[in-house]
Design a protein that fits this description.
12 helices; 2-enoyl-CoA Hydratase, Chain A, domain 1; single chain
């Protein structure tokens, strides 16, 4: 595993840390592949119930490494540049679309360009007070390549998304929280404890219920109300016969914390 990606599992929470602090965690293709490999591992491991993504140093992720992916890439053609995304960068959103475990971003500094896109595709986002966000593609005469044009309008609305995409201007963490881009802004020194605490709470919760909720929300974004209700009622029926549901009911009646299996 590349040193550019750090990975550990504690209390059923896997932490993926982007680790190129001197380059503001700008990613190379090899780093992206290592990141995707760790996500595949998280999906497969039974001892991982939630995933936390963060950056080392003073940035979350500044997007693709401009020297490797932009300057050197000028020697390639359009098809090769497309394949850089589809064969490498797009592994991340495709995997995150398949994983039904909670994925949480702890945004400890600047998230720009593809780095912002990769934060957007997580389920929950918590930001340190010093974090800032920008869709900087337009400043390089590009368009979003990692999913920003898909995810950003769904979070903040079409007009605000286009404003960010067209201007490339930064917003701070407080504004990101105000417009719904992040769930909560915290003091920098409290960020990781809060994000890890949320991850542990979800990891300790009723696993099948939490994953079914994520699948239902994701499906509901892409189908009509009748199909969404059918998916929800089917999942509800299965969960209602699960041991965790029985334990939750007993715990409620006995006025004690539940012990989920």
């Amino acid at each position: 595993m590349s040193d550019d990606i750090l990975f550990d599992v504690v209390s059923r929470v896997a932490t993926i840390t982007l680790n190129r602090p001197k380059r503001r965690n700008a990613f190379t293709l090899a780093m992206i592949d290592s990141w995707a490999d760790r996500l595949e591992e998280c999906a497969a491991r039974k001892d991982v119930h939630a995933v936390l993504v963060t950056g080392s140093g003073k940035a979350f992720c500044s997007g693709g490494d401009i020297d490797e992916l932009m300057k050197q890439g000028q020697e390639s053609g359009p098809q090769e540049r497309k394949e850089e995304l589809t064969n490498h960068v797009h592994r991340i959103p495709r995997l995150l679309d398949q994983i039904d475990k909670p994925i949480i971003a702890a945004i400890n500094g600047a998230a720009t360009g593809a780095g912002m896109d990769l934060a957007l595709m997580c389920d929950l986002r918590y930001a340190g007070k010093s974090a800032k966000f920008a869709e900087t593609y337009v400043k390089l005469a590009l368009m979003p390549g990692a999913g920003g044009a898909h995810f950003l309008p769904r979070l903040v609305g079409r007009a605000r998304a286009l404003e960010m995409l067209w201007t490339g201007d930064f917003i701070d963490a407080a504004e990101a929280e105000r417009i719904g881009l992040v769930n909560k802004t915290l003091p920098d020194d409290a960020l990781m404890a809060h994000a890890h605490g949320i991850a542990e709470r979800l990891a300790d919760g009723p696993k099948q219920s939490i994953r079914a909720i994520k699948r239902a929300v994701r499906a509901g974004e892409n189908c009509d109300i009748s199909a969404s209700l059918d998916i929800s009622s089917s999942g509800y029926g299965i969960l209602a016969m699960d041991a965790d549901h029985f334990e939750a009911v007993d715990a409620f009646l006995e006025k004690r914390p539940p012990k989920f299996k």
